[in-house]
Structure formats: C-alpha cells, structure tokens
Amino acid sequence: MADTVNDLEALHGAAVEAISAASTLEQLQEVRVAYLGAKGKITGLLKQLGKLPKEERPEAGQRINKVKAAVEIQLNERRDVLEIEASKPKNPSDFSLPGRRLATGSVHPLTQVTEDIVRSFRRLGFAVAAGPEIEDDYHCFDALNTPADHPARDTQDTFYLGTKDRQLLRTHTSSVQIRAMKDQEPPVRIVVPGRVYRRDSADATHNPTFNQIEGLYVDRGVTVGDLKGTVEFVFRELLGKEVKLRFRPHYFSYTEPSLEIDFSSPLTRKMGKEWLEIAGCGMVHPKVFENVGYDPEVWSGWAFGFGIERIAMIRYGINDIRLFYENDMRFLNQF
Ligand code: DAH
Fold it and tell me: What is the pLDDT of residue 4?
C-alpha cells in the first residue's frame, strides 16, 4: 500500500494524460469512471486506507484526497471545453449565403410626406430649422404681431401650461420664424416641420396635435411672384404635374398681404371637391421684421404654413386623420 501511495504522482500524471486525450464527452466520462467511479483507481486507494498502520492513515488520506480534488477539477475543465466544441456548428459559416428575411417595417406616411416636402425645398436652397414645442406667448403670438385680444389667443384654442411665464404648447410652427430671424442675419431660407397643438376635439379631420411645415424666405427684393413660383414648384413635385393653385386674399397678423392657397388636382376630385384649402401664406409684415431687428425698408420676404396631415390625406386618399396616430398595422402596412 505504501508503494501505491508513493505512486500517486504517477497515477495523477496518467489521469491528466487520459483527460487531455479524451476528444469526446463520452470518452471523458469513461476516464471519470476509471478514476473516480465506485471501482475507480483513486476510489480504490481510499478504500484501502484502513489497511495502513494507524499513524500513516491521516497523511496518506490527505495526499489521496488532494489528487482526487485535482483530477475532479481537471475533468470539469475538460468537460466545459468539449461541451463548447460540441455546440459549435459542424461546418464553418458561409457568409455568402443570403441573409434571413426579417420584416423591416416602413417609414410612417406622415414622415414620408414630410421628407418629400423637405427634399423639394432643399433643392431650392432651403435649410431645415427647428424650435421648441413648449413656447411662450411672445414667440407664438406677440412677436408675430398677434394682439393680446386676437381670437387666435383664445384659451379655447391654446393649451397653456399654467406656469407664471405663460408657457404654452405652440399652436403653429410660425413661432420658429421669430427664433430663426433672431438667431441670424438675413438672407434667410428655412423650412420648419414640426408638431403643433390646439384644443380641438378629436374627430375625423381634427386632432389636438398635428404637424405643420413652415417656410420663410427673406432677402432683398423678394416678391409675391417668388412665393407663388416656389409653392407651385413644391406642390407639383409632391402631388403631381396636374396640380393647379389658386391664391385668395386672407388675413394673418404676421403677413401683409396675406393669402390662402387652394389647390385642385385629380386627387381633390377623387375626394369629391374641385378646390381644397391647403395653406396660408403672405409677405412678412413689417412689424414682424421690426420685432426681430430686421430693417423692413431693406428686407422683404414671404412665409407660409400648412398642415402635413392634410397633404398626406389628399395624397393617399385618407378620410380620417386619426388613422395616422393609431399605429394599426393594417393601415401602416399599406405604405
Ligand atoms: N400659422 C398659420 C396657421 O397655423 C399658417 C400660416 C399662415 C403660416 C401664413 C405662415 C403664414 O407663415 O405666412 O394656420
């Protein structure tokens, strides 16, 4: 027995060799049984401890158990390696195979329309500007020459946030005209797509929040002719060559003269109407220029604003604005 215990080193060495030679989990299991099983070599040594003289037992027991623990650890390490190997695909990946076809979704119709409008304006040299949806009285109304008793400021229409400084949710993107002109010297050529808020109750054509796009062009000698030409170019690109536009006199506090744009096309006829109101516009009011520090004797400009949902409804023949916000896949999948 003493000899066997002295041969422990050799036994351990043989076990390590057998473990690293095992190339499958099954072979490794055989090695485990051969050394640690009920009839295994290390188990056998432990069983024979009783035959040793009493004083030799503790030391011999310690040495055998140390080897046993080491062999267990090495068996487990090898098992981990073999398990990972077994779970790998047999053949290396073929990166030239076609990818898995996942449904990637599509761009929301309102985003599509916005991107198309912006693209047309970019071709004419316009840049995209943005401003905050939480505005104040000054940028949304005062600076746009909208007097305090103007119906547009009626609390029926505007969501006020109830803060001391009269913060509100902007009712139109026109507030960004003021911010843009205060931020830069003329000339200015911007479009501003963005969300606006009004206290409309939701029905088929109204929603308390919707999207507008604002345009502003300021330079020397800008005329109504530039306005008409630009708007016609963009609407033809967006809604087809057959588009006809009609400009009617209107009132906005921040433009003079002010105009409303009607448009007619095979699309409006499909909706049962020859002409549909589509935008407000006009020549920037001298008061507005004064409010932002532009000299109205030097600079002139035009501005317009229209609702993106309305354009999208005409373009796609949609009769209920709420469809845009419901995220119904049966609706969205059509775009
Ligand atoms: N802000 C107007 C609205 O919300 C639209 C509008 C009209 C914008 C005339 C303009 C403009 O810039 O010149 O109905």
Answer: 62
pLDDT tens-digit series, residues 111-123: 999 999 999 999 9
Cβ pair 211, 309 in contact under 8 A: yes
* Distance from the alpha carbon of residue 212 to the mean position of ligand 1, in angstroms: 9
Query: Ligand 1 within 6 A of 305 CB?
Result: yes
CA of 335 to the centre of ligand 1 (A): 29
77-114: pLDDT as tens digits:
999 999 998 888 777 778 888 888 777 788 999 999 99
Same domain for 64 and 199, yes or no, is no
Residue type, 43: T
| Phi/psi at 72 (5° precision) | -60, -45
Element (H, E) at 38: none
Count of domains in the chain? 2
Which atom number of ligand 1 is nearest to the Cα of residue 216? Answer: 12
Domain that holds residue 244: 109-332
Question: Model pTM?
Answer: 0.70
Tell me, letter by letter, the H, E, C secondary structure of 224-250.
HHHHHHHHHHHHHHHHCCCCEEEEEEE
What spacing in Å lies between the alpha carbon of 52 and ligand 1's midpoint? Answer: 104
Q: Whose CA is nearest to atom 12 of ligand 1?
A: 304
**What is the identity of the amino acid at 240?**
G
Longest dimension (CA), the chain: 119
- Do residues 202 and 251 both lie within one domain? yes
Query: Does 101 reside within a domain?
Result: no
Q: Are residues 30 and 130 in the same domain?
A: no
Residue 95 falls inside a structural domain:
no
Would you say residue 81 lies in a domain?
Answer: yes
Residue 209: strand pairing partners: 197
